[in-house]
Amino acid sequence: MATGFYFHPDCLQHDNGQWHPECPARLQAIEDQLIASRIDALIEREEAPLAEEAELARVHTQAHIDYIKSRTPEHGRSELDPDTSMCPQSYRAALRAAGAAIAATDAVIEGRYENAFCSVRPPGHHAEPARAMGFCLFKMGFCLFNNVAIAARHALEVHGLQRVAIVDFDVHHGNGTEAAFSGDSRVLMCSFFQHPFYPFSGADNHASNMVNVPLPARTKGMQVREVVDMMWLPRLEAFKPQMIFVSAGFDAHREDDMANMGLVEDDYAWITEQQVRRVAKRHAQGRTVSCLEGGYNLSALGRSVVAHLRLAEI
Ligand SMILES: [Zn+2]
Fold it and tell me: Architecture of 3-312 per CATH?
C-alpha cells in the first residue's frame, strides 16, 4: 500500500524572514530528494485541506486561536517571539499544516493508506494549548498550532480510538505535546531530546504517560538506539497503541547546526523500522501518521525524510 504524502503550496508561503532556518526551502529540499531517490513512485500525493477552528480547539484554547489569528499582519511580518513570526499567509499555512495531519489521520483510519507523511510547515510540537495568551517571555519555537496533538485528539475524539502513541524524535523537547497530553492515559508520548537545551523542559516531573529521555549534547546514533530500545520499546509494547503519530523532526542529524547531536539517516531508518513500524504492525494495523517538525540542514533533511519514508514501506 502506498504512503500518503500530504502537502500544500500554501505551506511554502509562511515566511519567518530572511535567513530564518525554518524556511520554505525545507519543503523544496524534501521534494528534491524524493525525486532524486526515486521514492516518489512509492508515495501518493494528497492536497492538505484547511483545518477548521473547531478542530484546532480540540487542543488549543479559543484565546490561543484568536491570538494567532489577530497577529496576522496585513503586510510585512509580526513577531510572536524572537524566533517566530507571521506574514499575511502564515495563518493559512498553519491551517494547512494542521489540516494535513487531520486528513492523513482520517485516511489511515479509514484504510486508504497504512501510513502517511505530512510535509508541512509551520511545525507544531512546541505549540502549547494556551501558551500564546501571555507575555513576551513565552516562546513558540517556530510553531503556531500543534499539528500532531490536534491529529491525535481527532483520532481519539472523532474516530473513538482509545489508545494512541506519539513518538517525537526531534532534537528539541516537544513541550507543547507534553502540555496537551500530560496525565492523559489514552496517550503515551515517547521522546528523546538534547538537554539542557531549548525549550529547557521535559526532564523533570513528568507524568507516567510521558517517556521523555533527556540526552546530553554530542550523543550519537548508537547511544540513541540503545535508549530508544531500552526505554521506548517496552512502554510502547505494553501500551499497545491503536495508532502511532510521529513528530518527525530531523534536527538531531549530525549535519544540522541547530543542535548538537550525531544522528544520521540510518538512525532515522532504524527508529522508523525497529520501533515505530514494528509496534504499529503488531498492535495498530500499521497505522502511522508522521508530521514534519524540525530539520534545518537542507540536504540532511531531504535524505532523512527519504530514509523515514522508505522504511515506512516495509
Ligand atoms: Zn526541533
Answer: 3-Layer(aba) Sandwich (3.40)
